[in-house]
Amino acid sequence: MTTRRAIVVGAGLSGLMAARTLVDRGWHVTVLDKGRGVGGRMATRRITAPDGRTAILDHGAQFFTVRDARFATLVNEWSSAGVVREWCRGFDGDDGHPRYVATNGMTALTKHLATGMDVLTSKLVFAVKPGIETRWTVVIDDGSEIDADAVVMTCPLPQSYSLTVTAGVELPSELLLTDYDRTIGLLAVLDGPTNIAAPGGLQNPDSVFSWIGDNAAKGISPVPAVTFHANPEWSAAHWDDDADTGSALLTAAAAAYIGDATIVASEYKKWRFATPKRLWPEPCFATADDTLVFAGDAFAGPKVEGAVLSGMAAGVVVAGG
Ligand SMILES: Cc1cc2nc3c(=O)[nH]c(=O)nc-3n(C[C@H](O)[C@H](O)[C@H](O)COP(=O)(O)OP(=O)(O)OC[C@H]3O[C@@H](n4cnc5c(N)ncnc54)[C@H](O)[C@@H]3O)c2cc1C
């Protein structure tokens, strides 16, 4: 029997889990991502301060929780491999539920998942169209085309949709209309510790921020460094601010949380597709012949766990069980 070939678009959690699921079932899989590295919203930044010190900051997902038994099994494996560890059991007291982080920053988990896989980065997919000799042809920005028996799309849905307009398949309008909240972030390196109490995270502390995370307290940064995420309302209201204006506003709002320290280096970051506003009721969406499947955190939940479960579900659908 000839090996079947799948292309997975997106090397975030859902794409990598779809790919691994298919490889485990004997498929030949290539994962394509437009980014310079893997991870998508599992993003970790390194910022070098003027004195030469390098801070490490999680820029997208900050930690994750576990509810599903299949996900718990995976997390146990990752934990045994030293890739993830428990950070704490709550940020405002102990609620008994573990919050996990990747040991060296969240991107490290996706790098672990990509190990041994055929993953091509800096590959912007332009279109997915019906193939001549195979079911699908995937068109890449460098002019190359790859034929595949199946394609798994794991970009945020508006992006996946625009790439598959050429596929000639009908998609439900509710799926296409899925919108996402935006997040504007400030990544700040400090010259001294913050005044954020252990374990180092604040959720919805005021009318600007949805999250403030002390990356040194979390154990990933050797120097004081804080991730500030503005909430969806603030992010939408200030989306069109120029970077200098937005950064100055967030820096002023951040002052209350950094004690006597000074921000010595910072980056202002925007996530256009941060969090899906509405979830599709199934863990993925497959077209009639199960060869074009849409997955991602808009399906099984707008979190790390949801992205993982959706990717696994997509792989199972394509492989036929
Ligand atoms: C600011 C922020 C904070 C968050 N905090 C948490 C948290 O604390 N806990 C939690 O559980 N979750 C959190 N999340 C959510 C979590 O990060 C996501 O649910 C999860 O990472 C989504 O994974 P995914 O694979 O579905 O999508 P993504 O990670 O977005 O992956 C999609 C990939 O597709 C690629 N792509 C897009 N278009 C193309 C193209 N044309 N060609 C090739 N590649 C393309 C992208 O580069 C990207 O790598 C947060 C998200 C954000 C943005």
Describe the structure.
26% of the residues lie in helices and 30% in strands. The protein is α+β, with helices and mostly antiparallel strands and 321 residues long. The strands form 5 sheets. The chain has a 6-stranded mixed beta sheet, covered by helices on one side. The chain has a 5-stranded antiparallel beta sheet with strand order 13-14-15-12-16. Bound molecules: flavin-adenine dinucleotide.
What is the fold's blueprint, element by element?
Layout lengths: L4 E5 L3 H12 L3 E5 L11 E5 L5 E5 L10 H12 L3 E5 L10 E4 L4 H8 L3 E3 L4 E6 L5 E5 L4 E4 L1 E4 L3 H8 L8 H4 L3 E11 L10 E3 L5 E6 L10 E6 L1 H6 L5 H12 L8 E14 L8 E2 L5 E3 L2 H4 L3 H16 L2
Parallel strand pairs: 1-2, 1-11, 2-7, 11-18
Antiparallel strand pairs: 3-4, 5-6, 8-9, 9-10, 12-15, 12-16, 13-14, 14-15, 17-18
